[in-house]
Design goal:
The complex is a heterodimer of chains A (174) and B (791). Chain A has 174 residues and is α+β, with helices and mostly antiparallel strands. Helices cover 49% and strands 21% of the residues of chain A. Chain A has a 5-stranded antiparallel β-sheet with strand order 2-1-5-4-3, with helices on both faces. In chain A, a hairpin with a 2-residue loop joins strand 3 and strand 4. The relative contact order of chain A is 0.15. About 11% of the residues of chain A have low confidence. Chain B is mainly alpha-helical and 791 residues long. Chain B has a 5-stranded antiparallel β-sheet with strand order 3-4-5-7-6, with no helix packed on it. In chain B, strands 1-2 form a two-stranded antiparallel ribbon. In chain B, helix 15 runs antiparallel to helix 16. Chain B is extended. The N terminus and C terminus of chain B are likely disordered. Classes of the chains: A alpha+beta (174), B mainly alpha (791).
Amino acid sequence: MIKFFLMVNKQGQTRLSRYYEHVEIPKRTMLEAEVIKNCLSRSKEQCSFIEYKDFKLVYRQYAALFIVVGINETENEMAVYELIHNFVEVLDRYFSRVSELDVSFSVLPRIHLSFFVFLFLTACSIVWQTFKIMFNLDRVHIILDEMVLNGCIVETNKNRILAPLLVLDKMAES
Amino acid sequence: MPAVSKGDGMRGLAVFISDIRNCKSKEAEIKRINKELANIRSKFKGDKALDGYSKKKYVCKLLFIFLLGHDIDFGHMEAVNLLSSNRYTEKQIGYLFISVLVNSNSELIRLINNAIKNDLASRNPTFMGLALHCIANVGSREMAEAFAGEIPKILVAGDTMDSVKQSAALCLLRLYRTSPDFVPMGDWTSRVVHLLNDQHLGVVTAATSLITTLAQKNPEEFKTSVSLAVSRLSRIVTSASTDLQDYTYYFVPAPWLSVKLLRLLQCYPPPEDAAVRGRLTECLETILNKAQEPPKSKKVQHSNAKNAVLFEAISLIIHHDSEPNLLVRACNQLGQFLQHRETNLRYLALESMCTLASSEFSHEAVKTHIETVINALKTERDVSVRQRAVDLLYAMCDRSNAQQIVAEMLNYLETADYSIREEIVLKVAILAEKYAVDYTWYVDTILNLIRIAGDYVSEEVWYRVIQIVINRDDVQGYAAKTVFEALQAPACHENLVKVGGYILGEFGNLIAGDPRSSPLIQFNLLHSKFHLCSVPTRALLLSTYIKFVNLFPEIKTTIQDVLRSDSQLKNADVELQQRAVEYLRLSTIASTDILATVLEEMPPFPERESSILAKLKKKKGPGTVTDLEDIKKERNSDMNGGTESTPVNASTASTPSPSADLLGLGAAPVTSSAPPPSSTGSLLVDVFSDSASVVAPLAPGSEDNFARFVCKNNGVLFENQLLQIGLKSEFRQNLGRMFIFYGNKTSTQFLNFTPTLICSDELKSNILDLTEPLDMQIAVYALITVCQMHK
C-alpha cells in the first residue's frame, strides 16, 4: 500500500502531504526532511527507487519540485512511478483550464514534441502550477483523494477524477 | 502575484496565503500565523454565531496552517459543525479537516460518527461518497464498530452509484485492516467477487484491491475471483487501444488495473481448471510478446506503463513456477533489461531475476547472465542497483561459479557502503562454506574477509572457520601457515589475531619445523599484538600461550616470564588475572603428561546447523534466504555442522541461545502459554533426564532461569505476577535434596494449591514429597529428597 504522498520543493518546504497511516506530527517533519535529503543527493544516473528503512521511496523530479511516494512491498514500483506522472497531468489539466494568464501549457500529447522539450515544458508548467497549487490546496487534496484512497490506487481516468471537481466549480459559480 | 481564486471567493484565505509566501523569514511567518490563529480563535469564541461561509473560510485557514507544519489544537468542534451543514462545499471542508487531523478525542468521535451515519443514510451519492472517504482515510476502531455492518450492504446493493461503490470497497478494506474482527465474512463476499465484472473500471480497481487483501486471510471464500480476474485481464490485454477510452494511458490499456489483477492472481496457486489456465498462459504470453514489439509511442510514459505490467506479469510467472517456457522467456526478457539505458529498468530487472534464480526451471538460464551482472556490480553508479546485483549473485551461485562469484564479491566488499558490509560478509561466508571443494580456498576466503572488512565479521563467521579447520585434518597445516603469514602484516585486525591465536595454539606444531616459523617466532609474533587487543582477545591469547607451553617445552620459561609479569598477575580484569595465575601454576606444577592431557587438541565439533545462516535470516527477514536453503539442501552432503560454543575453554553456556543447546534440551520455540503453577516444579527434574522427548513446556521467560541451575544450586526458577517459585538444593555424595518455594505474590490466598511432580521413567528415585496445605499467605515449600542422582 502507499504509505504517504509528498510534494516537497528543493528548499525542503512541503507543499503537499498526505499520510495513509497514522504518523505523529513531529515525526512527519523529520521524515519529510530526511526524504528530501535522500532525493536531493541523487543524480540523474541513479534510479528513482530508494530503499529507505523498511519500505521504498519512489520519487520523480519536476524542475524544483519533488514528488515522493512511500510504498511498501505490495506495490509495483513502476506503476507508482507512472501514477505520479498521471497525477501531475491531472493537476495540469485542471489548473490550465482555469488559467487566467496568457501562458498556458498543455501536457496532453496533441502536439508531438520531442522528449526533452516535453519534459522541459512539463517542468515549467509545474513550477507555474505550484503557485496555483498553494492557493488551491483543498482542490489538490480532493484530486489526490479521488486517485488514491486508503493507500490504494482507485481511479486513474482523468475525466472521472475531475468530474466531481467540475461539478463543484459549477455549483460554486452559480 | 495575483491570486487565482475560485468562484466561491475565500479571498481572505488567498490574502493570507500571499502574506505567508511573502514572509522573508521563519520568524515573520510564525508571527503572521500566530496573528491569524488569534483572530480565528476570537471569532470562534465570539458571541454571534458564524455563518457557514465564514466557518468554512476559517476552518480552511486552519487546515492550511496545519499543512504548513504547525499543530492545531482548536477548531475541531467547528469542523464537526460544518459536517452537518447541507451545503456540499462546507461539508467537504469539514470532512477534509477531520480526515487530515485525526484526533482521538472521544466526544468528537461520537459526533463525527453521528454525522457520518446521517450522511450514509441519506441517499445522496455525493454525501455518501464524502462520508465513505472519511471512513476510509481515518478508519478508527470506533468507526469500525459503528459502520462495519452497513458498508458491505452499501457495496453490493444494486442501486448504489459506481463512485460510491468504489469508495465503499476501499472503506471496507480499511476497516478490515484495522479491525478484522468487526468485518465477518458473509454472503456479501460472492457479490463482491462479481464486482470484478463491472462495467466501470474504477469499481473493478477498487474491488480488486479489496479482494487481494481479503483473499490473503480467507482464500477459500474468494476462490471464484481467479477465473473472473483472468477473463477480465485477458479482455484488457487484448483490447484495441480505442476500446477502453480514458483508461488507456499513453496507448497502454488500463495499466494500473492490469497490475492489480496480476497481483490478485499472485495470491493463489496456478488455476486447476485447464481452460482458465490456458487463458492465463495466453494472456501472459501476449504481455511478453507486446514487450518485444516496437513501441507505439516514443514517450517514456508509454514504455514505463508497459513495463509496469510486464514486471508484474513476470512476478506472477515466477510465483506460479509451473510453465518452463514462460519462465525462460521471462528470464530472457529480464536479461535484455539488464543492459537497458534506463537505470530504473536495470534495477527492477535485477530484483526480479533474484526471485527467478531460485526456481529450478530457470536457474540455468539465469546463470548465463553472470557476466552482465558482474559488470553491473563494477560499473553501476547507484548503490541500490549494486546491492541488487550482489543479491542476484548470491542467489545464482552454485558449484560451477562459486569461486568466481566469491572473488567478485570480495572485490566489491573493499569499496562497499558501510551499511551493507555486514550482510555481504555473511553471504560470502555462507557461499564459501557451501561450495568449497577445496577447503584451503575456504580458509583463504575467510581470512581475506577478515582482512578486508574485519569490523563487520561477526563472531559466528570466525567460529565457523575454526570449527571447520578443527574438523578437517587436511587443512590444518595450511591454515596454520596462512594465518602465520597473515599475522605478519603490520596492521592486522583483531579478529585475525583471535583466529590466528587459536589456530596456532592448536596447530602451531605443524609449522614449527620451518625456521621462519619456529616456536619462538610464533610466540613473539602473537605477543607483539597482545597489548593492542581487547580483553576477550587477550584472554584467548593467554590460553594460546599455555597451549604453547605444552607444544613447545623449549620456550616454556619465556612464556612463564610473561605470565609472571605484574601486568598479568595483577591485571585489573578478573578474567585475565585468573587465567594468568592459573596457567602459570599449571605450567609449573603439572608434569608433562598431565599438561598434555589437559591441553590436548580440541576434538572435532559435532554436526549442527550453521548459525551464520540463522543470523542472515534474521537480518534479511525470512523471504530471501529460505528459498536458497530449500533448493540447495541436497548439495550439502559434506557440510560440517558446528555449535556456537566458544573455542576457548569456556564453561558451559549459561545463557541459552538458539544453537547453543549443549545440554541437548529441545530448543524448539515455546508456544504454550504459561502452564499452571503446579507443573513448574517438575522442570528441574528434566534437567537431569537425557531424553529430549519428555520436556515439559517451559513457561515463557523462565528459560534463562532454568538453564542457570546447571551451575547454581539456589535461585528463582519462575516468576510471574501471581507466583514466584524459588529453588534451593543441596547435594552430598549420592543424595540430593531440593526445596521448592512457592511464594504467593498476591494479597489473596491460593485455594487448592497442589504442586505435582512429573518425572521421566529414567529417574528412578525415592521421592519423599511433602506438601503442606496452604495456610500461610506468604509461602509454602515442598521438599523433595532424591537418591541416586545421575551425573
